[in-house]
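Aldose 1-epimerase: structure, please.
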Amino acid sequence: MRDASLNSSSAVASGDAALDDPSLVALRSGNTELRVAPQIGGSIAAYFEATEAGPVHWLRPATRAALDARNPLQMASFPLFPYCNRIRDARFDFDGQSIDLSGDGNAFAHALHGNAWRRAWRVGARSATSVELHLEHTPDAAIAGDWPFAYQAQQTIELVGDVLRVTLTARNLADRPMPFGMGHHPYYPRTADTVVTAAVDAMWHADLDVLPTHLGAHPAVEALRHGMPADAFDLDNNFTGWKREAVIAWTDERRKVTLSADATFGQMVVFAPASEALLCVEPVSNTTDCFNSPADARENVGGAVLAPGETITGVLHWTPARY
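Here you go.
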């Protein structure tokens, strides 16, 4: 099942981005602005440059309908905790225990993107250019399939000049080790002239449920290295060997945004379906279904195990430019 969402290009072209909604946290640095939706999964609702001709969006903006639906899949980007992408049949074994995540309210056949994106986040410290968002998860025995490990998560979302910087932090509050992954899920405006460039080594091929089957070569690997049109392939795949930088360019508009990530985010997902005008280039710390990966594949799937009290932090940047 693909991630359902809005048509990227139509949302931008129609001008119905909900930039003035009072429920959003508004940040500004010069002509660059952010809108953050703490109550909708701690999401970013818009990231854009304000111009006399109207906003120029670096991420696909949320619309009024998207905010009313309170659906993070229709935001500009949302956080992924405590794992990224799918877990087959919502089950995995860890530390001698069988973990069953089915029935926790996740509407997908395979557990998807963790639970933080389906929770309201608390607003902490804020300024004109930054905001902290906080989430604390305590397992609830009354909820079937609830994530069984307590953890804290924090996002610091800020504008540094015209650069969007997002710092993700998590801490294991449980009294036992916790399997863990994190990332962000940005949607970009997609047009016929959108090109993605990223140095990668291989691609995880996937089945019809978008679950990985094997790691290997694919024409998209070479295409990404040299600049891949967003329309080139039907993709919803993880890429390994990512050098932690990706450029999304709108060649007809002579503008681009560069995504850069620190070492925490060693994996990259490209979601560019043939059937919808959607485009995601996602920095993540683990591949799809990493908790079920065999031991001999672990070096290619990422993820981590956090000891009790252990904290992990990762930093992401989106840098816009014109050329």
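Notes: Residues 1-14 have pLDDT under 50 and may be disordered.
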